[in-house]
TrEMBL record:
Name recorded for this polypeptide: Exopolyphosphatase
One Pfam family, short name: Ppx-GppA
EC numbers on record: 3.6.1.11, 3.6.1.40
Organism (species): Corynebacterium segmentosum
Recorded name of the encoding gene: ppx2
Domain Ppx/GppA phosphatase N-terminal: 19-293
Length: 321
């Protein structure tokens, strides 16, 4: 038995997945966890990772290293996405990850991956449990700083992908600064999202997608809210369907209430309450894009994402061909 780990450090959260690979190459999840660290705090404005954000990342990663040691992990891959791609002081972050991850695997450190690779990893993870005949799929990974769109088939033929410079933290910090946001802020944010969706429409063949898959925290939280869950339940969320018409009612409610009130809902992580309004505006723009370009009128929600894609890559490397 081999145990491997995947870590995804995005603009808003840092997440860990530890999996076990048996002799036949079969994979079993051991633990999956997430912490909100807001690494992207202020990066949009200053171009640098804030010292307190870097410290939050260090503390969270130290905890993950302790977990990996306890679970006897021998290989780890950590990817860092939008916030670190944009930061001038990213080397400090990488040095910190090298110091900590080197305790698990010699030479390991965070890698900044391109939006295109991020899209591919998210796609491979998100469609792993989907029936192949429901493809081609469009996987949408809505993050804090960027949103990845990738259209592909069940056998991993990628038909097109694009990383849009748009996410729930970026929209909140850049535009939707009032709590709750003003009508003017919502309008400006919606226009910004529409511009990004215009770029996606030119690059990604959305019309070829039969099934739209939403992954990452905004989508999974929306599913929990739509189902009226009393606690966050990954099993109830994974594979659920969100229809556009009902979802629009929920999005309007979310944007209109202050973050303090959102945080009272047990399925909304306290670290997501202040930015999910930005996520709601992004989702509305995404729905408008889908309505223009395809016949789909719902999202299928996946709890699997880039972490599962990273694990699949580690499994492939360790399995004899």
């Amino acid at each position: 038995m081999t145990r491997v780990a995947a870590i995804d450090c995005g603009t808003n959260s840092i997440r860990l997945l530890i999996s076990e690979i048996d002799e036949d190459g079969k994979v079993r999840d051991i633990t999956r966890t997430m912490e909100i660290i807001r690494l992207g705090q202020g990066v949009d404005a200053t171009g640098e990772i804030a010292p307190d954000a870097l410290e939050r990342a260090r503390v969270a990663l130290e905890g993950y290293v302790r977990q990996m040691k306890f679970e006897k992990v021998t290989r780890v891959r950590m990817v860092a996405t939008s916030a670190t791609r944009d930061a001038k002081n990213q080397q400090e972050f990488f040095d910190m990850t090298a110091e900590l991850l080197g305790q698990i695997q010699s030479g390991a450190k965070a890698e900044v991956i391109s939006g295109e690779e991020e899209a591919l990893l998210s796609f491979n993870g998100a469609v792993a449990d989907m029936e192949p005949d429901r493809g081609p799929f469009c996987v949408i990974d809505l993050g804090g700083g960027s949103t990845e769109f990738v259209v592909g088939t069940a056998d991993e033929e990628i038909l097109g992908s694009h990383s849009a410079y748009m996410g729930c933290v970026r929209l909140t910090e850049r535009i939707m600064r009032t709590d709750p946001p003003t009508e003017s802020e919502i309008e400006i944010a919606s226009e910004y999202v529409a511009e990004r969706m215009g770029e996606v429409e030119k690059i990604v063949p959305m019309s070829k997608a039969r099934t739209i898959v939403g992954c990452a925290g905004t989508f999974t939280t929306l599913s929990a809210l739509a189902q009226g869950l009393e606690r966050y339940d990954p099993d109830a969320i994974h594979g659920s369907e969100l229809r556009f018409d009902a979802l629009r009612v929920l999005l309007k409610q979310l944007v209109s209430i202050p973050s303090e009130e959102r945080a009272l809902n047990p399925v909304i992580h306290p670290g997501r309450a202040d930015v999910i309004g930005g996520g709601a505006v992004a989702v509305e723009g995404i729905m408008q894009l889908i309505e223009r370009t395809s016949d789909a009128r719902s999202f299928f929600i996946s709890e699997k994402d880039i972490l599962d894609g990273i694990i699949a890559g580690l499994v492939s490397e360790s399995t004899p061909h």
